Amino acid sequence: MPSRRWRGLLWGILAVCILDVLVLAIVLGRALEDGRADLRFSQGAEVATLDPAKMTALIDGRVASALFEGLTVVEPATQKARPGVARSWDVSPDGLVYSFRLRDDARWSDGSPVTAGDFRYAWRRALHARTAAQYNYMLFPIRGAEAFAKATAARLSGDAVPLPDVGIEVVSPTELRVLLNQPTHYFLELVAFSTYLPVKQSCVETVRDGKTVDDKQWVFPGRIVSNGPYVLTEWVYKSRMRLTKNPHYWNRDAVRVGTIDIFPIEELNTCLVGYERGELDFITAIPTLAAEELLRRHKAGKRPDFAVAPNLGTYYYRFNCTRKPLDDPRVRKALALALDKQEIVTKAGRIGQPVTGVLVPPGVPGYTGAEGLGHDPELARRLLTEAGFPGGKGFPKLALLYNTSEGHKKVAELAQVSWRRELGVTVELTNVEWKVFLDRCNKLDYDVARAGWYGDYVDPNTFLDMFVTGGGNNNTGWSNAEYDRLIARAARTLDAGERMRVFRDAEVILTEQEVPILPIYNYVGAMLAKPHVKGWHPNLRNDILFQELWVERPEAGR
Amino acid sequence: MTRFVLKRILWFIPTLLAIYTISFALLRAAPGSPFIEERDMPKEVREQRERQYYLDKPWIVQYGYTLRDLATFRGQMSMKYENRNVIHDVLAPAFPISLGLGLAALTLSVFAGVLVGIFSAVRRYSLLDHLLTGGALLGISLPSFVIASLLVMLFSFWLGWLPATGWGSWQKLVLPVVSLAAFPTAYIARLTRTSMLDVLPADFMRTARSKGLPGGEVIVLHGLKNAFLPVLSYLGPAAAGVFTGSFVVEKIFAIPGIGHHFVQSALNRDHPLILASVMLYSTLLLVMNLLVDIGYARLDPRIRYD
């Protein structure tokens, strides 16, 4: 017969079971309401923020382009600006004044009109130090913008400096005039970027205890007011985000997909299984090994749902030009010439990344870049001998730094093999986690370091201005007066053809003569979309315009 | 007993304070700042962001403010997910999910583990015993991500019975709970088997049988009562393993629990989220251990806490 203690335990077990059921019931009860969206999409990680001013990630920008619309919209296929909220614009002959005429029927999702004042508010907000927007420098081509940002920062620190004027002028509710520092050839594409998207002041700011505050809660469903083709109707953190067609969007008749669910799925293999099982219609995050296999089948005509396109991004190595013997351009050139990039792409990249000798990826209209250095181990050995290290003799051991990842490790191992085989140079691999890696690159605490860069806009400037003396992303310690002069000249040059030639001259210095960096390959972007998803194009920046998609299911209900 | 429990709960305070202090010190000592990004941010932006998290203040002020924000459940904004308060918008929605998942896995592992243990002990060296012990060995040696991947391949990819991703229905619960329960189940099965083997030939068992009690009742009421003690003491560490180990399983099945934040926040150097999730886990484990100790006192007449 059971003792009292034993009965206690039984009660305990029963209690735990009841607790289980209760917790699960609560959790599942709160779970997503059913109802399948018209399109189910996953881009891997969860969106970090829906505040356009504060966005830095591509995946955030994609959602932003569904919720908000800028003065212009960049066409994914051509990467050219077309009218958005602005129906037309004029550019002054000197390229310094842009006058945008806004359409009368542009509306916020609460039905109120989108005005020039909304843009002025959003841009000044993005610049203001209180917002602490990492990408505020995207607005710096505007006259007075940088000074304004600095002044707001000084004010927060207690210095009562006057706020300078910013070249954003509201001429009328439907006309916005923007004054620039220099002719900025890509400005029309730039105003489509997330930092330039409009936000509504009355939505962002709330009045609490008589004080106006930005409580950061405005980006959530129920509060958020947006002006794009979609509105946010649900955001269950790390589970699902639901976008629904915006009934107030001026071009609503052209929006064909009524609801879109975006699922954050960090584990890429899971994402792929979900797609293969039909739980997802469209994914942009694909594990490398699977992508390689999919590419092979795609080429054999078997997987038309898979697409891969070159991206506006370059994978490269940085040389620390402040350390011996890497301060000698001959040594850097020797290392660049000796590297077998084709082998790296075949064995590490695996999805047909094009090898490159230059920093600016192909695909920038009107730009023909430098040649860069090819693969020439013979010349490499000669240069190394000239530099005083015949056969690698006396050459110190180099440390190759990368952030922990299987892909980067593979590339580094192949580089290690190449350099030992061709030059007799010994390389030691060092991997550290991401934040430590960035810290060491910033502090020039490395010999050779892995790097990658995606262009913010389609123009050589987004790549080449990185390497001016003291540039925030230079991180090589390299400095060249002629290079700085060329980049500055390109910024002042009005003639498009001439400007591209100046960039080319700069790139020759960077990748053929001085070589502070070693470009390896250009990134590619892969997507998988079920045959019933139409209207998407693989493109340079992996942009997806949700308002252009449509779904054509062969049979209803499935 | 009540005094013992109260005393233990009071002890939570210095324990948690010590954990907070050590975590805080480790954060300050770790290389790499939270505000280093791939693209260099303007100096004034960085300074403003540091100001938002008291990083411009001396460490002692930082220590105090952060502690206050945690202890009053006011929370701070996440450094990575800038619109989310780490307590209200990140951990609060995620915690019940991990708790539900963990409790379900623990319950499953106790029931399944004890059952398997009894069977293999009673039918010792039989084919059944060998199969079950072999299975338990597999469960102990295979890490949960392997088990999870195998289950996904089998049940969602090939057989197509169960969904692979997400959260929100009982079907989506099956694979994650089983993957998470695999290790503790196997461990409990082995524990139960071993202690049952000790208990089965004991005098009191023979006495019970000789009184004419049916075999099953003897095994469960007399045998298990004694054999269960090691299992109970293992439940503390098992809970720790299940709740912290859910990171992998949550990642593979795309479940929005806290496991992910616990690991990822450290890599992101998201200070507020690291501290909040460490404190949450610590509290959870302290509570689990206390429950196990109470259970022990109720079950084992030799143990008294007062």
Summarize the structure.
The complex is a heterodimer of chains A (558) and B (306). Chain A is α+β, with helices and mostly antiparallel strands and 558 residues long.
Number of strands of chain A: 20
* Gyration radius from CA atoms of chain B, angstroms: 24 Å
Let me know the largest β-sheet of chain A. 10 strands, mixed
Structure annotation, total helices of chain B: 11
Straight-line distance between termini of chain B: 6 Å
Overall geometry of chain B: globular
Shape of chain A: globular
Mean pLDDT of chain A: 91
Detail the poorly predicted runs of chain A. Answer: none
Q: How are the strands of the biggest sheet of chain A laid out side by side?
A: 10-11-12-1-13-18-14-17-15-16
* Most extensive interface between two protein chains, with residue counts: A-B, 74 and 67 residues
Low-pLDDT windows of residues of chain B: none
Show the helix and strand layout.
The complex is a heterodimer of chains A (558) and B (306).
Chain A: H1 4-29, E1 39-42, H2 58-67, E2 72-74, E3 81-83, E4 86-91, E5 97-102, H3 116-127, H4 145-156, E6 168-172, E7 175-179, H5 187-190, H6 201-204, E8 206-208, E9 211-213, E10 230-236, E11 240-245, E12 259-262, H7 268-276, E13 282-283, H8 288-299, E14 306-319, H9 329-338, H10 341-349, H11 377-386, E15 398-403, H12 406-423, E16 427-432, H13 434-442, E17 448-454, H14 461-464, H15 481-492, H16 496-514, E18 517-529, E19 533-534, E20 550-551
Parallel strand pairs in A: 1-12, 1-13, 15-16, 15-17
Antiparallel strand pairs in A: 2-3, 4-5, 5-7, 6-7, 8-9, 10-11, 11-12, 13-18, 14-17, 14-18, 19-20
Chain B: H1 2-29, H2 43-52, H3 59-71, H4 86-122, H5 127-141, H6 144-158, H7 171-199, H8 203-210, H9 215-252, H10 259-268, H11 271-299
Helix pairs in contact in B: 1-11, 4-5, 4-7, 4-9, 4-11, 5-7, 6-7, 6-9, 7-9, 8-9, 9-10, 9-11, 10-11
